[in-house]
Amino acid sequence: MALKAGIIGLPNAGKTTVYNLMTNGDGLVSPLPFTTVAPLTGLANFDDPRLSVIAEVFGKEQIVTPSLMITDNAALSEGAARGEGLGNQFLGYISSCDFLFHVVRCFKNHSVEHFGKWIDPVSDVLVVNRELVKADLELVKGETHRNDEIIDGRRSGDLVRAKMLRPLLRELSDIFSKGVNPHGHYFHPEDKSLVETLPLMTNKRVVFICNVDEHASSRDLAEKVVAFAVKNNSPSVIVSPQSASKEGLLRGQTWGLDVFYTLDGGLRAWPFLPPLVVHNAIRLIHPDLPSHTDVIQKFHCPRSGYSAIDIHATTVSCNPDDLVADGDIFVF
Ligand SMILES: Nc1nc2c(ncn2[C@@H]2O[C@H](COP(=O)(O)OP(=O)(O)OP(=O)(O)O)[C@@H](O)[C@H]2O)c(=O)[nH]1
Ligand SMILES: [Mg+2]
Q: Does ligand 1 lie within 6 Å of residue 213's CB atom?
């Protein structure tokens, strides 16, 4: 199953414009806010310079390039977490995505409506982030209710997990009530793993896409978003749709994604978000594949400085509990 990414952002940020560029789509673009109502889904293929080398080493002609399932959705706006605007629909959708593209408006264009007094991309980002925090507070409330029911015996479920989760849900609720996300908060590693099982919006990796036009001031605005992204350990890309520049947009590496490869009849690239163990990677490839790995050979191709000879020399044994590394090649 392909990795799923959701596009988020304020109205008229250029989400559908970016979606169309990524997927060769024809979603409706207009200067009116809330143009996109129903979700649009498409496949985005991206470049991977390692593919041709690996194909040559293993003599494969049939190649499947890395791709992502991308969904463009209704805009998020202030109050979305309370169900205002198209908020609920939006938030329901993004909770099922593996990661998010946050499109940020860095172009002025007075004929395209903007809710703020002036274009201030970092403050736009904060509006969206606040809604994600509010949505997570609601999610934690719902989760607490269900968890309490398990502990009280009114609902069936994993009692041990529920008891471990109870104090963590309280902690999370306190954090989200303050309007902040839990990124800087210390959780014991075991607790952290448990928190990561919750479908929190603020847990998702975000790649910022700064949507610029040809004006120098637009680039300056984008640089502020890039600096914000760096501070928050998030990748960012500057995109200029009007010059039809896809540069940077279709490069998985700039999104912080890793890729592994499979070889059977052909060669296929699989983008993934680390950490991923071999056992789960196999389930991703096909749920019916046996998880025992003694029949699988593993090679490796680093991100740079690779050669055909190096790849051939890397064969190692493959254990189900090993972490998959970027560049691993599994031969079935
Ligand atoms: N000048 C300029 N206009 C842009 C740019 N990107 C998008 N637009 C225009 O901005 C308007 C909104 O673009 P959309 O892609 O529909 O924005 P959206 O975020 O999908 O909007 P909603 O679906 O309404 O939330 C359209 O008129 C686009 O042509 C850009 O980089 N520069
Ligand atoms: Mg749109």
A: yes
Task: Count CB-CB contacts under 10 A for residue 254.
Answer: 15
Which residue range(s) make up the domain with 137? 132-201
Ligand 1 and 34: CB distance under 6 A: yes
| Ligand 1 probe mutation, 7, 17, 105, most atoms within 8 A of CB | 17
- Of all ligands present, the nearest one to the C-alpha of 9 is 1
The DSSP-derived string for 144-198 is HHHHHHHHTTSS-S-HHHHHHHHHHHHHHHHHHHTT--GGG----HHHHHHHTTS
Q: Atom 30 of ligand 1 has which residue's CA nearest to it?
A: 213
Whether 81 and 16 map to the same domain: the answer is yes
The CATH number that applies at residue 14 is 3.40.50.300
**Which ligand is nearest the CA of 30, by number?**
1
pLDDT in tens, 128-147: 999 899 989 999 999 999 99
For residue 24 the two structure tokens come to 């060769």
- pTM, full prediction: 0.88
